[in-house]
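Board notes (copied after class):
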Amino acid sequence: QVRLVEAGGGLVQPGDSLTLSCAASGRTGSIYGLGWFRQAPGKEREFVAATSWNGRDTYYADSMKGRFTISRDNTKNMLYLQMNSLKPEDTAGYYCAGTWRMSPPTRLIEVDYWGQGTQVTVSS
């Protein structure tokens, strides 16, 4: 079984930076594309960022472009999300997502594995 565990969430102020991590364990050989989704209270889970199996191709939701950076270290089975210039509207639970497909997951239907999430709160 594949397990994805997020870490790094917390309370930060607007404009701050935060780095989230996702540790993959189990049958990690089954994970290719990786990504991040988030879900705020009262809102649907939405796409944040994704990367291909080798990390060379990256995709971002429009509201994250220029602020967030997704990366992965396959030697450590780790996925990261560097978040800069955080805004209150970025407050949400952030979820690591994986797929056995090589293409990055940008839609909910494309996700095969989910982490439990890590909370990011941006507030003064």
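Comment from the instructor: The longest strand covers residues 18-26. The radius of gyration is 13 Å.
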